[in-house]
Amino acid sequence: MNFKIDDTYCEAFTGTCIRMIVTAEDQRTIDKIAADATATPGTVIGRTESGVERFLSKDETPDNRPGVIIQFWYNTKDLDKFDKELSFRIRQDILVKPFVKIFDASIDPFDYIDTTEHVGHCGDGYEWTETIDERTMIRVPICVPDFYIEQKLGCMEGIMGVNFWYCCSSKEAVLKGGYKALDAIATVDGVCTPFDICSAGSKVETNYPEIGPTTNHPYCPSLKEVLGDESKVKDGIEYIPEIVINALTVKDAKEALKRGIEALDDVNGIIEVSAGNYGGSLGKFKFYLKEVLGDD
């Protein structure tokens, strides 16, 4: 590697994932759905977060139309709350687009949510069910007929918050490195990156708990002189962006972490790769960077 690998680990935690295939008549609609439905990573404020796993060609979808696999995540097994939070995303970001169908894409789910109450009833009682290729679909009558959603969406246990920091000396490295890492991670099935390039790493403790996690101040380059010895920003480092990965399995998480970091190797201006951990207070998973990269 052309940069230092910090001898540390990233800390991650258990989450619940609902994985779906969304299809539409054209790619432009799919692109808009993917952007809208994944726009607000809200787990840190008690909401859901989501990301695109990958886009699908017509021959990869249940109805032979353009599609996308979207993962929706929640950091609890409270499925009633997840159901309600997910419905906001579906109703406001997906249902309102023309000619859309949602299909379950879960793998070995531990449970299911029924989409009737919070999404199906958008039909105001006029909705009905149809069987399409052995899938029970709710058909919701809307003014551009019609919206379809599979009645049962599977819930899977996965891993949230896998992360690495790539410490940079230039803006160019932040963007070039981040885009290369994201492209590499996207080649791994079963993962998503809900924040893309994240510029605002947070910490567990905060002076303002009412607003949720606040800035990870020891790692803010603009506070280096103000904090003095409390600052953890090393010499030569001007930017500390973060990539966050959610994954369905430990294997997927490790592979995504590995490919993301390795993709940075030829980017000028990256000084060090490190990761966020909080002494076990955040979650039970620890991914040691050097071990993942095979450097231990």
Automatic annotation (TrEMBL):
Enzyme class: transferase
Listed Pfam families: FTR, FTR_C
Domain Formylmethanofuran: tetrahydromethanopterin formyltransferase Ftr N-terminal residue range list: 4-142
Residues in coiled coil: none
The protein's Enzyme Commission number: 2.3.1.101
Keywords: Acyltransferase, Hydrolase, Transferase
Protein name: Formylmethanofuran--tetrahydromethanopterin formyltransferase
